[in-house]
Specification:
Elements lengths: L1 H18 L3 E5 L3 E3 L5 H15 L2 E3 L2 H8 L3 H4 L5 H11 L3 E9 L3 E10 L4 E11 L5 H12 L6 H7 L18 E11 H7 L12 E15 L3 E12 L7 E12 L4 E20 L10 E4 H11 L1 E4 L2 E3 L5 E2 L15 E4 L4 E18 L2 E11 L3 E9 L1 E2 L14
Parallel strand pairs: 1-3, 1-4, 2-4
Antiparallel strand pairs: 4-5, 5-6, 7-8, 7-19, 8-9, 9-10, 10-11, 11-12, 11-16, 11-17, 13-14, 14-15, 17-18, 18-19, 18-20
Helix pairs in contact: 2-6
Length: about 400
């Protein structure tokens, strides 16, 4: 019985020993492109990581040199199945490992192929894209070899090295260029409304307080993704032409465009020319020209020359005999009235800055874009509320970053 047990154990031990005999592996110089790495160094990395796995008898470069004796066909451009199989037979190994290392701009692509020399066939292969961290190429090789041998890979290492296929950020991705003409209408509010409805004799425009707009918008995209764009817009606009008025403005806006539906939001300064004068409104009709009549300094001078006369150096009296006591013709002497800066079509020309906000959406019909926006342009005491409509035609599309031929 003891003899049977001994024989059985001996046979089992022999089988285990045979099973544990390592198969031989040689590493050919892989193809390297776009990396600061030689083919020989890349092959050395593969050899080192195979040795660490401890599943194969790995030939190093010296073992291979003794057999191949510097045959150039095996050290230069031996990448195909036939060449690698021939190399394996010369070396009398079971397997040959080779592959490629390629820099693809923001990522590194590595492929490894495992050749079964005896059968002259591809036994296994793997290809992965990694983040462009060239100093970590050896760890990338480690990950691939562990996967090829169906061994556990450190998930943290794999996560740190993998290529993050992030949302594309480019000047041309997701781009909708809405440069083109604009037409619309705006209602004047606040001091602008008062100026529009005031008579020309008092420095007003004497127009209906709703004006047409016609202009042109230029825009440039500085950030773009599939569902988001950040743009700079420049708008030149003229209002009031239908009522015989020329009211120009220039706007510089920062805008954001969201989603495939083309929702937009923009804001920024708007510049225009305005005329102003110093004066007051006779809201109580104290001077007999009507309630709310505007008197500029020049208007008041003319009125005072006609209705007041100087009695002495320090006093002025009205034609009805009521006295006041500042300098002659000074409006501050008219009870509680005082001069202030007021919009006046007869006044001095000044540059005015307003704040403009717009919200809208771009509708599409084939190659036609139709942006529709509502906006509010505000200043200290008034502004415009309006709507504009534009159009433009998409003539071409560009590849990412503008490279390549337009299609």
């Amino acid at each position: 019985m003891k003899k049977v047990i001994i024989i059985t154990l001996s046979i089992f031990s022999l089988n285990t020993s045979v099973a544990q005999v390592k198969k031989s592996m040689a590493v050919a110089n892989p193809h390297v492109e776009g990396l600061d790495l030689t083919s020989e160094l890349a092959a050395k990395m593969i050899q080192l990581e195979l040795i660490k796995i401890d599943k194969f008898l790995v030939y190093d470069e010296f073992d291979m040199a003794e057999v191949l004796q510097g045959d150039a066909k095996y050290t230069e451009k031996c990448y195909g199945l036939n060449c690698l199989t021939s190399m394996g037979k010369e070396l009398n190994v079971d397997y040959v490992m080779s592959g490629s290392f390629t820099n693809l701009g923001n990522k590194i692509a590595i492929s490894l192929k495992w050749i079964d020399v005896k059968n002259g066939k591809l036994f296994k292969s793997v290809v992965r894209e990694f983040d462009n961290q060239e100093e970590e190429v050896q760890r990338m090789v480690k990950v691939l070899l562990l996967e090829l041998n169906e061994m556990e890979v450190d998930i943290h290492l794999k996560e740190q090295l993998k290529f993050q296929n992030e949302v594309i950020v480019s000047n041309d991705v997701g781009k909708v260029n809405n440069s083109g003409p604009r037409v619309g209408v705006a209602a004047m509010v606040g001091s602008f409304h008062e100026l529009a409805t005031r008579s020309e004799a008092q420095g007003g425009l004497d127009i209906f307080p709703m004006v047409s707009n016609i202009g042109y918008q230029w825009e440039g995209q500085y950030v773009g993704t599939e569902n988001f764009s950040a743009i700079i817009e420049g708008i030149v606009n003229v209002s009031g032409l239908e009522q015989g008025r020329f009211l120009p403005s220039i706007s510089i806006l920062n805008g954001f465009r969201f989603g495939k539906a083309g929702w937009e939001f923009a804001f920024g300064p708007s510049f225009t020319l305005k005329r102003e004068s110093q004066g007051f409104f006779d809201n109580e009709n104290k001077f007999g020209r009507g309630e709310g009549v505007y008197f500029s300094k020049d208007d008041w001078q003319t009125y005072a020359d006609m209705n007041y006369k100087t009695n002495d150096a320090d006093s002025v009296y009205y034609s009805n005999g009521n006295y006041t006591n500042p300098t002659a013709y000074d409006i501050t002497g008219s009870d509680n009235y005082s001069n202030s800066t007021t919009l006046d079509a007869r006044g001095d020309v000044k540059l005015s800055a307003n704040w403009l906000m717009a919200f809208g959406r771009t509708f599409k019909a084939g190659s036609l874009n139709i942006p529709i926006n509502v906006y509010y342009s505000s200043s200290k005491s008034g502004g415009n509320i309006g709507m504009s409509v534009g159009f433009n035609v998409v003539k071409s599309r560009s590849k990412i970053n503008g490279s390549g031929r337009a299609i």
